[in-house]
């Protein structure tokens, strides 16, 4: 067995050497997360059954582990590279190719997601839930800047308005850390059941990295940070040129990006991460007009 790899959000991941080769075991750490992990498995299998794009796939689920306490799934192990390793060594055309491919993938999501009216109480409830957790975090409860940001964000989320956003399908957590790379194609991992199944959320999570460098900041180890930053900027340029003028993106992107960073902030335990989130929240709140 290859050494244990700690996971996030209530699950653990082990790479296991079996008779037929390597497999990935993703297990819940308790029954409170098992149901959510099963929904993620449903989403991954649905993607695999409906995907027709030749340049994107996801690991096949070999079987599920039906256990109320530590349920999970066993998946095929895919030999691929992280975004840092891949773009460190890829050709100069690789960022453009990936940008074109991810745009086509997102266009497919939008085509399957008709625009609907989003109930205001859905966003209000999520914002209030996140705010309560933030204020219960000992590192944040007395932070005056965080309190100010929550007050300003409240003007965005609590203000009565109509929201017409596409609803239908999304990965749910489309950060670069959840994309593995092979030459000419990419593999999606760690699908997430989102409180709102909208492709806007995938643009939010992707730009969390291509514009705000979240996953890059979380990388531990030596790599060419300047080169990686230039690659991400290049991808972001293509991404925003394609989607930045879409009516639903103009209407919902800023609000959902603020919410995404607030959801990270609620569990932040490192001062460097908190400082990073505060800096980016300031930028986003200004863009939201508050």
Structural description of this entry:
By secondary structure, the chain is of the alpha+beta class. Helix content is 51%, strand content 14%. The chain is built from 10 helices and 9 strands. A hairpin with a 2-residue loop joins β8 (179-182) and β9 (185-188). The longest helix has 20 residues, at 31-50. The N and C termini lie far apart (52 Å). Mean pLDDT is 93; it is low at 1-8.
Report how far apart the termini are: 52 Å
Structural class: alpha+beta
Report low-confidence residues grouped into runs of 5 or more.
1-8
Which outline best applies?
globular
> How do the strands of the widest beta sheet line up side by side?
1-2-5-4
Average pLDDT = 93
From the 3D structure, determine the CATH topology of the largest domain: Aminoglycoside 3'-phosphotransferase, Chain: A, domain 2
Determine the strand fraction and express it as a percent band: 5-15%
Features:
290 residues, alpha+beta, Phosphorylase Kinase, domain 1, Aminoglycoside 3'-phosphotransferase, Chain: A, domain 2, 2 domains, three-stranded mixed β-sheet, 10 helices, 51% helix
Secondary structure: elements and pairs:
Elements: E1 11-18, E2 21-28, H1 31-50, E3 56-57, E4 61-65, E5 72-76, H2 83-89, H3 94-111, E6 115-117, H4 120-136, H5 144-157, E7 164-166, E8 179-182, E9 185-188, H6 199-210, H7 214-218, H8 225-243, H9 247-265, H10 271-287
Parallel strand pairs: 3-9
Antiparallel strand pairs: 1-2, 2-5, 4-5, 6-7, 8-9
Helix pairs in contact: 3-8, 4-5, 4-9, 5-10, 6-8, 6-9, 9-10
